Each structure stands twice: as C-alpha cells, then as structure tokens.
Amino acid sequence: MLPFLTPVEADFAATNRLIIEQLHSDVGLVENIGHYIVDSGGKRLRPILVLLTANALGFGANKEASTMHSLAAIIEFIHTATLLHDDVVDVSELRRSRLTANAKWGNAPAVLVGDFLYSRAFQMLVALGSMPIMGILSNTTNVISEGEVQQLVNAKDPDVTEANYLNVIHKKTGALFEAACEAAAILAGADQPQQQAALQFGHHLGIAFQLVDDALDYEGDSEKLGKNVGDDLAEGKPTLPLIYAMQHANPSEQLLIRNAITNGSTDDLEAIVKIVKDCGALDYTHQAAQTHAHKAQKALENLPSNCFTQAMADLAQFAVARNH
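Structure tokens predicted for Octaprenyl diphosphate synthase (324 residues):
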C-alpha cells in the first residue's frame, strides 16, 4: 500500500465500493468497459486527494461519510472519462500495461462510455446537492476540454513555447487536482483561506505530476510505465523536455527534434532520448517538478497540521520521486 493512503484506507475502500456500484448500467457493454478501465490498476490519486483534504480539514463523524465518498467517486469518474476520450484522440493502444478501451472495443464504444461516466458523475453531483461544488466541477470539465483542444492544436508544432505548454498541462491535469482539493475543502466546511490553500496544493501537485509524466516518456521503462516510451513524440507532442532541448541543443540536434515533432515520428527516438539527456532537458523538467512539489508542500502550512496533511506532503514527494 502507498504510505499516503494509510490515514484514509477505510474511506478509500468505501469509495471503491461506491465506484463499482455506480458503474451499473442496463447495457452490458457500458459495464464491461467501465469495469475494465476502473479495474486497470491506476493510482487513484485524485479521489485520494479528496479523502485526504476533507479529513485534513475536519470532515468528522458528525458528517455523513457517504458524501465524501461520493465526491471522491465523482472525481474518479470525470478523470476516467477523460482517459477514455484521450486514448481515442491520441490513438493510444496501451495504458497501464493493458490494451486501451479503444484498442479493445473500438473508438465509438470508448467515446460513448466516456460520455456515460461524465453523465453519471453529474447525476451524482446533483444528488450531492452542493451548488458551489457543482460550479467548480462543471467549470473544471470545461477547462479540461479546452486543454485537450489546445494540445491538439499544439501537436506537430515545434514552436510551442514553455508558457503555452504549462498552460496546457494546467488545464489538462492541474485543473482536476485543484478541483478535487477545493471541492473537498468546501465539503468539509473550510473557510475561504483554507479553500484557497487546498486549491493551491492541488494546482502545484498536478503540475508536478504531469511534468514527471512528460520526463518519464524519455527516460522511463515501458514495462513500468504501462505504455510505450516515446508515445508523446509519436503524437508530435512538444512537451517540456523537447522544448528545452530545442533551446539548448546544437543546431543539427535541434533540427532532428523539430523534424520528429513535425512528422510525429519516433524513427530517431534513440538519438533524441540521448539529446534530451545530454543537454540537461530531463534535469530541467525534474527540477521544475520539484519546484512545484515544494510549492504544494508550502501551501499545506495554511492547513491544520495532522496525519492527513502529512500524508498530503508525502504524496507531493511521491509525485516527483516515482518512476512510473
């Protein structure tokens, strides 16, 4: 078990039971795909964030625990829906060492089950009955969609700037981390400064997490990653390791990377991996991730000191120290 999960182990188990329960559908294919994705071994960091944040801010025995579990499940359904849609857009075939839903069942079922999970999340939100939380999550799903479209626009464009890239990963990844923490703070009845601190924690954690993901695409192990190394390059995604390398490598190396991005080609993957390592691009990306992890931990100073906030600090360190 991951150490940061220990303080909320019972709540996490209850959330998982609720997720399975809410996957029910009269259409067998919906349940089959839903269970396949949910059972595929993800870390479930976003629902864990809900549970840790709510408990850190005093969500106690005087409140109905099922509401916290519902919020955690809602966050996981939104995240899972985005994964289903992402894999179709990216034409991905592997995720978490298994065939993606689109590779196994086809694009149309994957997209439609993603829609089912989105709508189930909003059914559960209505039942939760909090307009502030509904406002946060409706806005967040809109921001995530914008991030996906912007990433599509950026694909095969070697002139994407670091600022543009950071804006995309905030929308694609950071926004849901933020929403998980802010919504949990509201559910716990936290005051405005604590809600803002929770949001800042989620923001910086999400950015750190995505930066490490993008670095691992050039240094990770395919078996541990559960996907093919070089997938980002195959899709023509100009992530931070490539953006930095194009600024600091020699002209011939810059041209090699530029052509690979433009063509979405992994023909020169081995050479490009060597370039991003030799020019310090991976070190730069990891340092940027560490900076955001530190900012996330700094935000915790504005929350109560307890076993839950300690677990959140541990989670921030895990986000940057992991190898998959």
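The chain has 16 helices and two strands.
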